[in-house]
Every structure is written in C-alpha cells, then in structure tokens.
TrEMBL record:
<dbReference type="InterPro" id="IPR043683">
    <property type="entry name" value="TetX_monooxygenase"/>
</dbReference>
<keyword id="KW-0547">Nucleotide-binding</keyword>
<feature type="binding site">
    <location>
        <position position="44"/>
    </location>
    <ligand>
        <name>NADPH</name>
    </ligand>
</feature>
<keyword id="KW-0274">FAD</keyword>
<feature type="binding site">
    <location>
        <position position="51"/>
    </location>
    <ligand>
        <name>FAD</name>
    </ligand>
</feature>
<feature type="binding site">
    <location>
        <position position="301"/>
    </location>
    <ligand>
        <name>FAD</name>
    </ligand>
</feature>
<dbReference type="GO" id="GO:0071949">
    <property type="term" value="F:FAD binding"/>
</dbReference>
<comment type="similarity">
    <text>Belongs to the aromatic-ring hydroxylase family. TetX subfamily.</text>
</comment>
<keyword id="KW-0963">Cytoplasm</keyword>
<dbReference type="GO" id="GO:0046677">
    <property type="term" value="P:response to antibiotic"/>
</dbReference>
<feature type="binding site">
    <location>
        <position position="107"/>
    </location>
    <ligand>
        <name>FAD</name>
    </ligand>
</feature>
<keyword id="KW-0503">Monooxygenase</keyword>
<comment type="subunit">
    <text>Monomer.</text>
</comment>
<protein>
    <recommendedName>
        <fullName>Flavin-dependent monooxygenase</fullName>
        <ecNumber>1.14.13.-</ecNumber>
    </recommendedName>
</protein>
<dbReference type="Pfam" id="PF01494">
    <property type="entry name" value="FAD_binding_3"/>
</dbReference>
<feature type="domain" description="FAD-binding">
    <location>
        <begin position="9"/>
        <end position="351"/>
    </location>
</feature>
<dbReference type="GO" id="GO:0004497">
    <property type="term" value="F:monooxygenase activity"/>
</dbReference>
C-alpha cells in the first residue's frame, strides 16, 4: 500500500499472534495499535514452554526478521519426547537432539522478543475491549472499559478463546472437549528433584492410562510444568472434591486418583508445588469459518481454538499473523488482503483442528496408552513434538 493508503489498524490482544502481526506490519513499513487488557507485560504468568515448528511458528519468526533473537533463547536441547504407561514402562523415547525442527522457547521469552522489537508505544496496556461498532463509512469504532474510543479501518481479533471481536463475524462459541487439565509444577528440579528431572529428561514426558494422564514438560530456568489430565464431565473434579485453594487436600485428592501408578510417576504429584490451576480444555467447532466482513478478521485462538494435544495453536497463530501482515502490505486494498489471508487460513485451520481433536481423543481415551502409541508412531515421529 502507498503512503496515502496507509490504514489505521487495531490489533486486539498482545499474545504471540497479535504481537507477531504488529511486528510484521512494522517490518513492511506499516504500523498498528495493539490493545491488551492486561495492565502490563508482567501482570500474570504467560504459561509454559512452546515448541515452534519449522514450517509455521519459525516461518513467522523469519518473516518478522527475528531469527537471531529467537535462536538466542530457544532450547534446541529440550526436544526429547517420552511416552510411558502407568507402570513407568517407557513405550517411546524420541530424541531428535539439536537436529530437531521444533525447539522449545518459554512463552515469557518469546513475548519479550516480540515486545522489544516493536516501536515504543505500539502496545496499549490496560485496554479491555467492551464493544465493537460498525460505522457508516465502513470503519469500526472500538470502545474500551477505560473509556477510550478509537476508530479504525481494520480490526484484528487476536484476543483468544473468548474473543470480544468474534461475535461480529460468527455466533460460534468454544465447546468443552471432555478433557480437563489440572496444572502444577516443580522448581529447581535438577538440584532438588533429580529423580523427577531424570524421568522427564530434556523435553516432555507423558504417562497415560485409560481416560487419564500425567504430563510434564521441561521449561527454562530449571522449572518443570506438570499437567494432570482427566476425561470427565465438565466440573467433575470439583464435584468429586478437588479444591485448588487447599493445596494439601488437593495433592491428596490427586494422589488418590493415581494410587495404582508407579511411584516414580506419583512423585510428580508428591513433590509438586502448592499451586494448582484447573484448566478445562475448549475448542471451536472443527471447520469454523465466517462470511467475509469488510474491516474485521480474526487470527489464532479467536479464529480456530483447538486442543493443545498437537502443539499447533501458537504456531498457527503466529503464521496467521505473519501472512495477514504480508497480505496487508502487498495487496491494493484491505478487503483484498483480508480475503487473501482468510482463504489461506481456513483450510489450514480445518486440518489442524481436526488433527488436534483426533489426537486428544486418542491420548486421553479408554484404550490409552496403546492407541496413543500407534497414533504417535503414525503422525509424530520425525518433525513434530509429542506435547
């Protein structure tokens, strides 16, 4: 687009997708305003480690011109994947080493790279979107809880599962997948929990039994993040007596659910910290899409929320963002750019969401771990992570 055609662009959400879009636009000579409801970059934990795939997340990093910055913080040594049964028997142990194409990076460090690459003032913190109103000239007015009102030529919803932008395009809402995670973790594992560190290794470990599982993934700075998975009705764990606000009782409740598991796996729960978070898993309907709407589009979880079983979510969000940014800079109009982007994104998201749903239904299922083992051998060996 020429200088005269430079559009006013709003990005709702300062996650990896929204920040990648802002960065790619900046690289291409355009600018955007990013609005984030959190008060600051450090308001809350950004979550665990991510594996960025060569043809999606890393491609977006290259398009954003941040390859060197990414390599400086990526953990190429933490790509190992293990699958165990509840008796502690190792069923699969994949170690691609430094040759693997999905290095790990902590969410906090990835976000810092992206934030540091943006012009000062590009991100507006403490801006919680209240409503989005179409204007007669084709623009859209954004109204925020803090009283701010701004009008833009293009609004991009990069605001996650419960997007405030999505209702303008689609009536779809996230659906409970039938699986709930309970998250906890361990710090200073190599020094204080050497047996657990050895069990998890340099990467991730998943132990499965019918309709439940224990997963652990190595993060940076000596931290291991632990996920306890159950296939269960919504809020079953609460109704069955789990209370995340009572750590000792919560730990005892979890150990009871895994009473017949190998002691090395029970140690993940016995030694974990006192912080527990219940995370029901949601997804948008497989094949979610919308009719073209001038001046508005979605990316990442706002567009195609899927289960984390395949590790594709953040990778697709970043690729969505990079391709949308490129299209905006190359096409003659915003409408043409949106149309070009959405026609690339919809089929890619359909395939990824379908595969993520299939994978979750195999990993946390009545025939786990054996169906999962077959699935992993068919789809994950060489080139993808077992997350």
């Amino acid at each position: 687009m020429t200088k005269k055609q430079t559009p006013r662009i709003a990005i709702i959400g300062a996650g990896p997708g929204g920040l990648t879009l802002a960065r790619v636009l900046q690289v291409r000579g355009l600018s955007a305003m990013v609005f984030e409801q959190e008060a600051s970059p450090t308001e809350r934990s950004q979550g665990g480690t991510l594996d960025l795939h060569q043809d999606t997340g890393q491609k977006a990093i290259r398009m954003a011109g941040l390859t060197d910055e990414f390599r400086a913080v990526a953990r190429y040594e933490d790509q190992r994947s293990r699958l165990l049964d509840k008796n502690g028997t190792i069923l699969l142990d994949e170690d691609p080493g430094s040759a693997g194409d999905h290095p790990e990076v902590d969410r906090t460090e990835l976000r810092a790279i992206l934030l540091d690459s943006l012009a000062s003032g590009a991100v507006h913190w403490g801006c919680n979107l209240r409503s989005l109103r179409p204007m007669s000239d084709g623009c859209h007015e954004l109204i925020f809880e803090n009283g701010l009102r701004e009008t833009f030529d293009l609004v991009v919803g990069a605001d996650g599962a419960w997007s405030r932008v999505r209702p303008l395009l689609s009536q779809a809402v996230p659906l409970y997948t039938g699986v709930t995670f309970i998250e906890t973790g361990l710090d200073q594992v190599d020094e204080e929990h050497p047996a657990v560190a050895q069990l998890v290794g340099h990467g991730s470990m998943s132990a499965l039994a019918p309709n439940k599982g224990l997963s652990a993934q190595r993060n940076g700075h000596g931290h291991i993040r632990i996920y306890v998975a159950f296939r269960c009705p919504f809020k079953w764990e609460t109704e069955a007596g789990f209370n995340e606000e009572q750590p000792e009782a919560a730990r005892a409740w979890l150990l009871k659910q895994f009473a017949d598991w190998h002691p090395s796996l029970q140690a993940l729960l016995q030694e974990c910290n006192d912080h527990f978070v219940v995370r029901p898993l949601y997804m948008l309907p497989v094949g979610h899409r919308w009719d073209f709407h001038s001046g508005v589009t979605l990316l990442g979880d706002a567009a195609h929320l899927m289960s984390p079983a395949t590790g594709q979510g953040v990778n697709l969000a970043m690729l969505d963002a990079a391709e949308l940014g490129w299209a905006i800079s190359e096409r003659q109009s915003l409408d043409e750019a949106i149309h070009t982007y959405e026609q690339l994104m919809f089929p890619r998201a359909l395939a990824a969401n379908r595969f993520a749903d299939e994978s979750l239904n195999v990993f946390i299922s009545s025939d786990a771990p054996y169906g999962a083992l077959t699935h992993v051998r068919q789809h994950f060996i060489s080139g993808q992570a077992l997350d």
